[in-house]
Automatic annotation (TrEMBL):
Transmembrane parts of this sequence: 61-80, 92-119, 176-204
Membrane topology: Multi-pass membrane protein
Broad class of where this protein is predominantly found: membrane
Name the UniProt record assigns to this protein: Transmembrane 4 L six family member 19
Family, as annotated: Belongs to the L6 tetraspanin family.
One Pfam family named in its UniProt record: L6_membrane
Signal peptide: none
Organism field: Ictidomys tridecemlineatus (Thirteen-lined ground squirrel)
Top-rank lineage group of the source organism: Eukaryota
Molecular-function GO terms, alphabetical: protein homodimerization activity
GO cellular component term of the entry, any: filopodium
Length: 210
């Protein structure tokens, strides 16, 4: 059976790994959101204001990115026990663990929900209105949002026949928002592990003192 001191050492090592993993995931989330602002790596769409609201919301930048990165830094600091955490009281460690978990949870959850809604609504692109009615006109919008009878995520024949500009708008949209969805789900899993790990560390810390 592992002693409390040994378990605490394992808990600190786990915090270091979790902090590094969350920080890396946050950087990837930020990168995926940046890519969504430049369809086909073309800056003109952003300058003309032709970027969808889900990408412009930037949940991968400030939610799954900055908020999670801040929490990851706190988790890493707790793992290495630098500065005030080296001899911190259990209550301070618990409060820090709760704050970092809550911050990462909120950021990842916002990114997860936004990405899910974005995939449901589809990309913002220029499409032919006559595809849906008899009016010949081109406009920017969300052509798949009100398409209740067909799901564009499964019907790949719509990917190149509806959106005219940017080229491969659907592929770009689905690829990066799916990436954000997976990253945020991974972040949520790491937060749960961190929460459990923090309570184990606190419990062993109390046992060692007794």
């Amino acid at each position: 059976m592992l002693s409390p001191s040994c378990t605490m050492a394992c808990s600190r090592t786990c915090s270091r790994i979790l902090g590094l993993s969350l920080g890396t995931a946050a950087l990837f989330a930020a990168g995926a959101n940046v890519a969504l602002l430049f369809p086909n790596w073309d800056v003109t769409y952003l300058l003309r204001g032709l970027i969808g609201r889900h990408a412009m919301l930037g949940s991968g930048l400030w939610g799954g990115g900055l908020m999670v990165l801040t929490a990851a830094t706190l988790i890493s600091v707790m793992g290495w026990r630098y500065c005030c955490f080296s001899k911190s009281v259990p209550c301070l460690s618990l409060l820090t663990a709760l704050f970092s978990s809550g911050l990462a949870l909120l950021g990842a959850l916002i990114c997860f929900i936004t990405s899910g809604v974005a995939l449901k609504d589809g990309p913002f692109c220029m499409f032919d209105v006559s595809f849906f009615n008899q009016t010949q006109a081109w406009k920017y919008g969300y052509p798949f949002k009100d398409m209740h009878n067909r799901n564009y995520l499964y019907d790949h024949s719509l990917w190149n026949s509806v959106c005219r500009e940017p080229s491969k708008a659907v592929v770009w949209h689905v690829s990066f928002f799916s990436t954000l969805l997976c990253i945020s789900l991974f972040q949520l899993l790491l937060v749960v592990i961190h929460f459990i790990n923090s309570f184990l560390g606190l419990f062993c810390s109390l046992c060692e003192k007794q």
